[in-house]
Amino acid sequence: MIKHSRKKHFVATLAVAIAAVSSARAAFVLVDDFEMGSNGPVSGQNDWYAADDTSVITTDPANEDNQVLAVTADSTHLHHELFLLNGTVRMLYWRFRFGGQQAYSFGMSASTFPDQFGEFEVELSMSNANNNLRVLDDNYYEELIELQPHTWYNVWFLIDNSTDESRVYLHPGRVRPADLNDLLDSEGQTEFVFRGGTGGDLRTFYIKTGGGSSGNSGPLYLDDIHLEDTAAVNLNNPTVIPPDFNDDGDVDLAD
Fold first, then answer.
1. Three-class SS of 71-123
2. Residues with Cβ < 8 Å from 147, sequence gap 6 or more?
3. Please, are residues 122 and 157 in contact by the beta-carbon 8 Å criterion?
4. Most buried residue, 27, 81, 91, 152, by most Cβ within 10 Å?
């Protein structure tokens, strides 16, 4: 049993923690979690443009109460306007999951209407040769980590549009924030250069799949796209709703 004074201290501490996390979370601005969309082609919904009707809003394969974006075909592309001014630093967060070896890329483009791989300025990708997540480094790809299919991953993509560099934090699951142990590297390298290393505004969150030869069209699933609205290196998870911090459906001492 918690004594009265200790109980009051616990409640006060919990309130401060909730306020602190709420304040941190408030800096993330939702781009799209697909909950307000209608099942079917995403193009034309909430400012999405897709090249065809194979990119759709559908039910999360891991949670029937959740809606997600599914990119179900090779050789397609889609984008959503998302401005990141030259000279600013922002953290871009989203969740993703893939169904099998597939050539796909997602990241930011300086183009308002991108449709080529060369139009990514910052990019995460996977080829159809293996399940290794890669990051764009100037005009090359650096391999970061092997991923598992049918697993939701959280990714925090720090985009420094003043130095034209990016960093990647990633872990599977849903609840916890990221930390320094989640910072990905390629043989010790953790900072990666924009394509061409040139400046300029970034204008779109961009997704593209390749033609490939694996015979696998994914699908690639995405959800909960958020953009930090300050230069803070925000590693909080914007999908967590306090005060149920451990996501077990109740609020108790475990939280």
1. ECCCCCEEEEEEEECCCCEEEEEEEEEECCCCCEEEEEECCCCCCCHHHEEEE
2. 98, 126, 131, 132, 133, 153
3. yes
4. 91
Q: What share of the chain is helix, strand, coil (3-state, %, to 5)?
A: 15, 40, 45
Asked whether the beta carbons of 128 and 102 are under 8 A apart, the reply is yes
Which residues, in sequence order, are CB contacts of 73 under 8 Å at separation 6+?
A: 52, 54, 55, 209, 217
pLDDT digits (tens, 9 = 90+) for 47-101: 999 999 999 999 999 999 999 999 999 999 999 999 999 999 999 999 999 987 6
- pLDDT on residue 253: 66
Q: Which helix (H) or strand (E) holds 24?
A: helix 4-26
The CA distances from residue 76 to 24, 121, 133, 152, in Å, are 36, 18, 19, 22
Give the largest CA-CA distance in the chain. 66
Judge residue 84's burial from the number of C-beta atoms within 10 Å of its C-beta, 0-12 exposed, 13-18 middle, 19 or more buried.
Answer: buried
Contact predicate 36/46, CB 8 Å: yes
Task: Report yes or no: 129 and 149 within 8 Å, Cβ to Cβ.
Answer: no
The whole-angstrom separation of Cα 92 and Cα 89 is 10
Residue type at 88 in one-letter notation: T
**Residue 23 pLDDT exceeds 60:** no
Q: How many CB atoms lie within 10 A of CB 90?
A: 23
The structure's pTM equals 0.84
Sign of CA dihedral 93, 143, 220, 245: negative
